[in-house]
Amino acid sequence: MRVSVTPEIVAAHGLKPDEYAHILRVLNREPNLTELGIFSAMWNEHCSYKSSRVWLRTMPTTGPQVVCGPGENAGVVDIGDGQVAIFKMESHNHPSFIEPYQGAATGVGGIMRDVFTMGARPVANLNALRFGAPDHARTRHLVYGVVAGIGGYGNCIGVPTVGGEVNFDAGYNGNILVNAMCIGIADASKVFYSTASGIGNPVVYVGSKTGRDGIHGASMASAEFDENSEEKRPTVQVGDPFTEKLLLEACLELMAGDAVIAIQDMGAAGLTCSAVEMASKGGLGLLLDLDKVPCREAGMTAYEMMLSESQERMLMVLHPDRTDAARAIFERWELDFAIVGETTDTGRFIIRHQGETVADLPVDVLAEQAPVYQRPWTPTPPAPYLPAKEIPDTDDLGATLARLMGGPHLASRRWIWEQYDHMVMGDTIQRPGGDAAVVRVHNSRKGIAATTDVTPRYCAAAPKEGGKQAIAEAFRNLCAVGAKPLAVTDCLNFGNPERPEIMGQFVGCIEGISEACIALDMPIVSGNVSLYNETSGVAIPPTPAIGAIGLLADVDKMATVAFKQDGDEIFVIGETQGHLGQSLYAREIAGRKDGAPPPVDLAAERRNGDFIRSQIIAGNVAAAHDISDGGLLVAIAEMALAGGLGCMLSLPRNAGPRHGFLFGEDQARYIACVSPQKAQAMIAAAQEKNVPVTRFGSVAGRDIVLDGKLVHSVAGLRSAHENWFPAYMEG
Amino acid sequence: MKSCVIVFPGSNCDRDVAVAIEASSGTAPLMVWHGETALPACDLIVLPGGFSYGDYLRSGAMAARAPIMRAVLAKAASGTPVLGLCNGFQIMTEAGMLPGALMRNAGLKFICRDVFLKVENTDNIFNRRYASGQVVRFPISHHDGNYFTDAATLDRLESTGRIAFRYCAPDGAVNASANPNGSLNNIAGILNAAGNVLGMMPHPERLIAPELGGSDGRAMFDALASLLQCA
Description:
The complex is a heterodimer.
Chain A: H1 7-12, H2 17-27, H3 33-43, H4 45-48, H5 53-56, E1 66-68, E2 75-78, E3 83-91, H6 93-98, H7 100-116, E4 121-131, H8 139-157, E5 161-168, E6 177-187, E7 202-207, H9 217-220, H10 241-255, E8 260-265, H11 270-282, E9 285-289, H12 302-307, E10 313-318, H13 323-332, E11 336-344, E12 348-353, E13 356-362, H14 363-368, H15 397-405, H16 414-417, E14 428-430, E15 437-440, E16 447-453, H17 456-461, H18 463-481, E17 484-493, H19 500-520, E18 524-530, E19 534-535, E20 538-539, E21 543-552, E22 569-573, H20 584-589, H21 602-617, E23 623-626, H22 632-643, E24 647-649, H23 658-663, E25 670-674, H24 676-688, E26 693-699, E27 703-706, E28 709-713, H25 714-730
Helix pairs in contact in A: 7-8, 7-10, 8-10, 10-13, 15-25, 18-19, 18-21
Chain B: E1 3-7, H1 14-25, E2 30-33, E3 44-47, H2 69-77, E4 82-85, H3 87-95, E5 101-103, E6 111-119, E7 135-142, E8 146-148, H4 151-159, E9 163-168, E10 187-191, E11 197-200, H5 218-230
Parallel strand pairs in B: 1-2, 1-3, 3-4, 4-11
Antiparallel strand pairs in B: 5-8, 6-7, 6-9, 9-10, 10-11
């Protein structure tokens, strides 16, 4: 089939006229349609990072704990004892909006493949989800589908889904965000990379057959939506978790030996991207014979095969004398195994199909000469400080607390996480609902703590502070369970980067994230960028979702949020100034959406986080909780609900405005519960480290009581907190 | 104790139950591939949880016809204890080892959470370390756990003491609000007529140590280990 490439065809492939001119220049001829498709797959925003690359390069990615930073399938960090944690978070936003079940399911499948491609057994999944306003017509349907899709995939493959976060905001009405994170554990000596080597080594295709699904998925994910986005449904892939489970076991069995030279999963842009990346990293050429590719249906064209995003497929370069043994493993798992090509020294990506050469392209141009844009950007105008006195205090504290705890932002997410198997694999030490999930490293006392965080309303008001805060909150969530933060994966979700104000949000967030990562010793080791999250010209709030992991040396030295027993004293760690700007109180109770978000003092974050962790490890802390969305009183209420116990609180003398103290979202703070016997030791340690500690009350009874007055019964709060989600979904 | 855990394509709680067996007995079980046709001499066979064959078609339906199942049925008939957990229970009903069927949960959603169970029959090798009427806490994690059978079979199960566990409230009350999936008579697990085959939807292997959030499941594996070691 010979189709001549017209400007319309170029535009339909998402390539700009100047990008096409560049292709003509480097090829010195017109590409054919298959070649154009390959360029479009490699050079779209999703695969090439062309708008973000110059900024991503500025981020901190190194540290003594980092074994492998960005650029591979996932990041690798040292967790001691000859073991590594391998993890990454990735977006599946566009497909999930079009087809929520399959979009979310294949997002989970894709991120798990990224992790086991590198030789790790996945041990935990998390997710960060953003939906439109609860009253928007599509929201309920999308929540239902996304949650079922995540559960459907993760439950079947048997990897626990242990944590995550969910926001509702009208800013996501037209573009939901589905960010999936996976963590795996491997032996440090058994990590696999995607760099091909050797000439004439077999290129092997394993897993599912190639079908016509997902063609142009990555290009679709690099464009805005409009009112016709429903028509893009055929670009969404369909997941098969059962096949992925077989692929996981077969790959890990193969990797236990020494057959694998390089391996790359077929994710975005499928066969094209995986083949080009392996060849490019090895400085090699690669020959593919498409007649050998296992296909689901007859008559597929080279163009379709090269752009299919059928799931559960891997491409590997094997040692030639291990090929038969490898084939036996995959056949035992009833998976396709086909030698589809070989490595060459030509530096060219040559594709044969039905006796003809259907593409002949230089590897380095495809992989490394993708356009890189220095997009113009304008900084977000600074938001003015909003003093507490401009916002009225509440005259009914109990009702206000119940409204916050029983509203879409803070209501229990149990409806979601009970649909996820969060216990399979038998190592879940801290289940969903706390500050961070904790999974034990199998056959050890060590634990991996994990969390996902970002506060988009902060990022929208002040991108740099918001970026800092996302890292700071992840840091706090890890410290609050007693873990030492290790490293970060990020999923940078923004609107159209061709608009300077969107690019300004992106730049601001990156600057804030970088500054915080350096200050808190949490380098970025993996991640992805999702741009063009816009529908009909309306962008999502800037949402740089952060996934972070930490290490517990001993899972017995771990804290949870639950109040433990009557008489334990309650302390606020860190300084409270009563900052209400961009707080949930200001937005939900007072209707004020203006104002600057709370400033982030990274030195204080570090000091206070190191302090709470050391106190947990020392055994001084009965319960700990980071203070974030909703402020101090909300954090107290969450601890009361988790423990089924009440408390007697008293406002400190120098508290300032009451609503500022109770609902302000000042950063770098925790609540620590300490038994009376240990309180003195904790206070002394805090003084020594210059950490502010304020006594706020003690655990007592079954009600939350402030200055002798009932705020709310724990039981009543529980119904408000637990009922919102099921009632909403039954709608 | 010599035990075998059958591994089907898509089993995913096989390692979890192997850990529980080893913790109680000191000996790791033999993992037996579904494509085998014979079983070694053994004192216990486990059909583990998971999604055998992806639960495509019907939960447990394809695994029930795996080559190894003929040997499992023969061992069960000759009195070897066989424990089916979650997907293993579904496979047992599909294979005709136990009566009834596990339908989609009444709420139509997958449910993963701890539930309370009333131990009914304790006169069997699985439950002998529990007291009759004791309330235990095990997790469930399934989409298809809604036990159903015809009235005559239900009557027979009830009248011959073949109910092993029932979903209940924390105080032991067996009522509709404590029933997570719509199972008839709150049935969570049943025995065969000889008492050597137990199928149950909850996962005792998931709560075998305090750091996991509870250890009520441990007694089942301890009972099996001690009994089989004496044998």
